């Protein structure tokens, strides 16, 4: 039986980018899909623009109140999806034409797979850089991964490059509509991986992630540690007997805190010790702590250096 896909695009004030994202789905070489466009109470003309797309595969949904991160909008799309597989794309990003053809071939060959993810390009101006996972495993076309791999990194999943069975994400609870201004998608992937039996990563980049788009959550909302210490992760830590998984979670949490602290130091701020001491005590803690203080010292030394 041929696989069919429901593609979900949440839209909140993304007018300049809508044609790029929507047509990248409508122009897929594989025709067996539906496209759910979820207008998340846009006010910039996006609502009117969405009405202009004339294609029988489109289902247009409307929400009256926008939700943080587009999480509630994605849930609305999942609830209305009629196909076995769901995919997600942000309204300012873009797929290559062969995304669903590639997914369909793998699904037909492997009946056990429940999550498929693929590589992406970070695009800014003329720069197009593959994601770290694609670079690390560039010699492997397809690679199986687990929740432990997710925590250890590099990141094998991202919202614009993922497809999974609708049943799986429904069982996992969908996207969190409260409690997260940012990082709710990562919390969702963690819960889905905890439930899934087999996950495959296509190394080839097939999504363009535009870093210079308008109204980006990643620009408007600061990073925090919410999803790194979420109830989802706490439940996994309490439930699992897998020592490798527990170690990977602690490393993941430390790495997240280190990234936030590094950004603050690079921005000229002091080290936030209340956040630093949320790290788990391990070799990675001592290494990251040392590295952070050396970075801070070098920045301060450079600032004090007299101009010649």
Going by CATH, the architecture of the largest domain would be Alpha-Beta Complex
CATH superfamily of the largest domain: Spore Coat Polysaccharide Biosynthesis Protein SpsA, Chain A
Output mean pLDDT.
94
Low-confidence blocks of residues: none
- Please provide the ordered H/E string of secondary-structure elements: EHEHEHEEHEEHEHEHHEHHHHH
Distance between the termini: 73 Å
CATH topology of the largest domain, anyone? Spore Coat Polysaccharide Biosynthesis Protein SpsA, Chain A
Count of individual domains = 2
Reading off the top of the CATH hierarchy, the class of the largest domain is best stated as Alpha Beta
- What's the story with the biggest beta sheet? 10 strands, mixed
Beta content:
15-25%
Find the count of extended strands (DSSP E, 2+ residues): 10
Q: How would you sum up the global shape? A: globular
**How many helices does DSSP assign?**
13
Structural class from helices and strands? alpha/beta
Radius of gyration: 20 Å
Pfam families: Glycos_transf_2 (PF00535)
Organism: Pontibacter fetidus
GO molecular function: transferase activity
Keywords: Transferase
Present the secondary structure layout:
Layout: E1 5-11, H1 18-26, E2 33-40, H2 46-50, E3 58-63, H3 71-80, E4 85-88, E5 94-95, H4 99-109, E6 115-124, E7 127-130, H5 132-136, E8 142-144, H6 147-152, E9 162-165, H7 166-171, H8 184-195, E10 199-210, H9 217-220, H10 231-239, H11 243-266, H12 273-276, H13 283-304
Parallel strand pairs: 1-2, 1-4, 2-3, 6-10
Antiparallel strand pairs: 4-9, 5-10, 6-7, 6-9, 8-10
Helix pairs in contact: 11-13
